[in-house]
Amino acid sequence: MGRAIVARLNRDGYYVYAADLKAGPPPEKGEAVALDVTDRAAVFALAERAGADGGLSVWVNAAGIFIPCDVLDAGDGDWSRIIAVNLTGVFHGCAAAMSVMMRTGGGRIINIGSISGQVGGTAVHPAYGASKAGVHALTKTYALEGARLGVLCNAVAPGLLGGAMSSQFSQQQRDRLTRGTPLGRLGEMSEIADVVAFLAGPGASYMNGAIVPVNGGALMPS
After folding, report:
1. pLDDT tens digit string along 136-174?
2. Considering the chain, what is the average pLDDT of its residues?
3. Any catalytic annotation for residue 142?
4. Buried residues in 149-168 as b, exposed as e (16+ CB within 10 A)
5. Greatest Cα-to-Cα distance within the chain, rounded to the nearest angstrom
6. Which terminal CB of the chain, N or C, has fewer other CB atoms within 10 Å?
7. Which of 92, 130, 131, 136 is CA-nearest to residue 111?
8. Cβ(131)–Cβ(145) under 8 Å?
9. What is the helix (H) or strand (E) element at residue 158, kind and residue range?
10. Of residues 14, 15, 17, 128, which has the active-site annotation?
11. pLDDT > 70: percent of the chain
């Protein structure tokens, strides 16, 4: 998903700092950065660097880990690890981005939530849905605070996507989840990236605190 978002924002003309635990290939327009999102000081340092280099207009919190397991077998160690990356990492990112954006004329923060944060889930560690529900709540909190500072904060809540996470399910589980989606297929990473690009762009100037469902109709919140 991160690669898809970087490529889409590049296409829109953004210079992107593509951050991951291990720096990968640099984007077409931007830099690859090694970053542990659980390291608050490092996250703040990256935000400050981006702001100083050319201005920080968009910050996307997309780092996440997913551990399939029987709920009754879910362990404490995995709970702590998932919460640290998926929720605390987003907290660090929101705080770091807002601290820079509020001084430089505003911007957009976009978080990646999940349908699991809205309905829970089976065959996956319960920390995953809990962390994503927390991301949705964090999004609303930073949207309220950011409104007076010129910083809009929204989230995308994907359903099941084709990629590394869904590949950890068995084929039987993927087939069952696909049948439960009205569109009858898994989502594509590019479809999430397109929504992120919309939230980053001028068409989303009156959107703040939204949790945008991109799930093929599997959940239709009113």
Report:
1. 999 999 999 999 999 999 999 999 898 766 666 677 777
2. 95
3. no
4. eebbbbbbbbbbbebebbee
5. 51
6. C
7. 136
8. no
9. strand 151-158
10. 128
11. 97
